[in-house]
């Protein structure tokens, strides 16, 4: 597993070792020992999967409030996404800063996102399916979000008129978001 560090301590891009042969490839898509080796000792308790039919779909930016905040391990089963994290830890020197990464069925990259970050992605091709592990169960009452195109965050998305859920269309700006990290 190759580990690529990001601008945020704790946010890491992971490149699994794919064993390629004439049939295709095999890889260990998750191995707990590797996460212990990189200092991630939380236990994943829930797996999620979503399909976005059209390119230019943005899901996010989402997070759960403490005590139900979630670390996430995101990967792409099929398709390509531009995956974005935003530091929402109020006392962090990088509060409100973001970074984006291309995850795809081709680069097999996975993104490890610790608690304290909002997460969202934009699909770049049709029928993109993502699969991600979280270390805290879903809690609708702790589910929060930040508007994708908040001008202060100024995220450079690959689309300007995305497909959004009704919920995501009405998310607050970061400065009005409820945060307790
Ligand atoms: C997240 C979640 C949702 N749901 C239900 C709630 C809604 O009735 C339905 C769709 O939920 P939502 O529109 O929040 O799904 P996404 O827009 O894909 O949100 C997710 O995508 C962004 C990028 C994330 O990082 C979050 O993990 C997650 O919020 O599934 C559940 O039953 N369990 C869950 O864990």
Q: Can I get a quick summary?
A:
The chain has 181 residues and is mainly β. The protein has helices at 32-37, 166-169; strands at 2-5, 12-15, 19-21, 24-26, 46-52, 58-64, 72-78, 80-87, 98-104, 110-113, 117-123, 128-134, 143-145.
Instruction: Give the integer mean of the pLDDT values.
Output: 97
| Structural class based on helices, strands and sheet pairing | mainly beta
The gyration radius over C-alpha positions equals 16 Å
Poorly predicted runs are: none
Largest sheet: 6 strands, antiparallel
Q: How would you describe this protein?
A:
With 181 residues, the chain is mostly beta strands. The protein has two helices and 13 strands, in the order E-E-E-E-H-E-E-E-E-E-E-E-E-E-H. The chain has helices at residues 32-37, 166-169; strands spanning 2-5, 12-15, 19-21, 24-26, 46-52, 58-64, 72-78, 80-87, 98-104, 110-113, 117-123, 128-134, 143-145. The strands form three sheets. The protein has a six-stranded antiparallel beta sheet with strand order 1-2-10-7-12-5, with no helix packed on it. A hairpin with a 2-residue loop joins strand 3 (19-21) and strand 4. The protein is globular. The mean pLDDT is 97. DTDP-4-keto-6-deoxyglucose binds next to strand 5, strand 6 and strand 11. DTDP-4-keto-6-deoxyglucose is lined by residues 48, 50, 59-60, 62, 119-121, 138, 165, 167. Its EC number is 5.1.3.13. The active site is at residues 62, 132.
